[in-house]
Specification:
By secondary structure, this protein is mainly alpha-helical. It is built from eleven helices and no strands. Among the domains are: 53 residues, no CATH class; 42 residues, no CATH class; 64 residues, no CATH class.
């Protein structure tokens, strides 16, 4: 209210004189004051609501689930990891895309770790192999020098006058200091001799191992051409026949065969027994080819009794007879006769 508000009239006081103009002003003022208060309250509410409206305007708009699914469908599908089998493809496709991405990321990280471990292991093996090869090379070079070292010790020995135990006893009694030198020399000789023996034993073991591997490989190749060798019953029986029948007949002795089987001795291809085997192999091939040629020739037509024989029937009959004879005898002479008849036919 303004300063002109109507004051209460106390008892006993006389009311002021108001004319019509003053009354009209008082009523107008009383009517405008509530409107001003309402406007002030509305202004305060608007000021409070303004930050809320600003926050709502800055907030992200709500995402429609349908729009999210459409966006995921538009992206290319994520391939199934290699650790998942083909039977699990349906299960993989049913997973949410975010879950698929996590699984693929973990699989990729694991594969990288595995590959890194494999590379480190390969490098370690390579380094170890290089060290082993270097050590083996050094050992071989040292062992190759042992015979020369032993020979040098013998040739440069300052104890050539010591020939027997009596000389050793005399040396001990007369010259103890030289006797000590003799002992050191003997120890050195024994050490070199022991190393030389170890080197020879190691070399023999390596040679035997390589020979065993070679025998195994050659037997496997032979079994490809001779199926009987791969059979558990026929194979040993065939080897026994060769060792007891064929090879002794060719002139091989038992001790010679034992050394050949152990790789202790070698056999030249020019050995007369090997040449006999080759010659027999050629004869067998000729026999097999002759049988094929006989079978390939057409049989003569069947004639009625009393009819004249066609030309060439006599030669065909001769070839058949010689072929049958060759099958029974296996003789080179019969083979030559068969080949001659086939050439004349």
């Amino acid at each position: 209210m303004s300063d002109q508000a109507i004051a209460p009239v106390s008892e006993g006081a006389s009311a002021p004189d108001l004319n019509a103009r003053d009354l009209s002003a008082l009523f107008t003022q009383a009517r405008e004051e509530p409107q001003e208060q309402e406007q002030a309250a509305e202004s305060a509410d608007d000021a409070t609501a303004a930050p809320k409206l600003a926050d709502e305007a800055n907030a992200d708009p709500a995402t429609d689930p349908g729009e999210t699914k459409e966006a995921e469908a538009a992206e290319p599908p994520i391939e199934r990891p290699k650790s998942w089998s083909k039977d699990e493809d349906a299960e993989w496709q049913s997973l949410p895309r975010a879950m698929q991405q996590k699984i693929v990321a973990r699989e990729l990280e694991r594969d990288k770790g595995t590959l890194r471990s494999q590379q480190e292991a390969a490098e370690t093996r390579k380094a170890a192999q290089a060290q082993a090869e270097a050590a083996e090379k050094a050992r071989q070079e040292y062992e190759a020098k042992l015979p020369a070292l032993m020979q040098a010790l013998h040739e440069t020995s300052p104890f050539a006058d010591i020939q027997n135990m009596a000389d050793v006893e005399k040396l001990q009694a007369e010259d103890p200091f030289r006797f000590q030198q003799f002992q050191v020399y003997q120890w050195k000789m024994q050490g070199v001799q022991a190393e030389l023996q170890q080197a020879e034993q190691r070399k023999a073991t390596e040679t035997q191992t390589k020979w065993a591997q070679s025998v195994q490989e050659e037997n496997a190749k032979a079994a490809e051409f001779i199926p009987e060798l791969a059979d558990k019953e026929k194979g040993p029986a065939l080897v026994k026949r060769v060792a007891e029948e064929l090879l002794p007949e060719l002139g091989f002795k038992s001790d010679e065969l034992a050394d050949l089987a152990a790789g202790k001795s070698k056999l030249s291809i020019y050995d007369h027994r090997i040449q006999r085997l080759l010659a027999d192999g050629l004869k067998l091939r000729d026999i097999q080819k002759a049988k094929i040629a006989v079978v390939a020739k057409p049989a003569p037509p069947v004639l009625r009794p009393g009819a004249a024989k066609p030309p060439g029937s006599a030669q065909s009959e001769t070839i058949q007879n010689l072929s049958a004879k060759l099958e029974r005898s296996g003789s080179p002479k019969d083979l030559g006769a068969l080949i001659g008849a086939m050439r004349r036919a």
